Amino acid sequence: MKTKLVASIVFALSAWLAWGAGSLHEKDPAHYSVTPMLVLGALALVSLVVLFFGKPSTAKAKARS
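Below the sequence we write its predicted C-alpha cells.
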C-alpha cells in the first residue's frame, strides 16, 4: 500500500515536471534542451510500472513462497 502511494506521488510530480520541461523546450529550444523532459518522462514511466506491477523483488519472493 505504501509503495503504491509513493509511486503515484512520484508519477504525478515527474509527469508534471516533464510536461513543464517540454513546454520550456518548445518555447525556447536554444536555451532549454530536451534531456530533462526525457529523464523525467523515464522516471514517470518507471513509477507507473511500479504502481501497476509492484516491486519486482516482492513479486519474486511471493512466487517462491
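The two ends are 20 Å apart (CA to CA).
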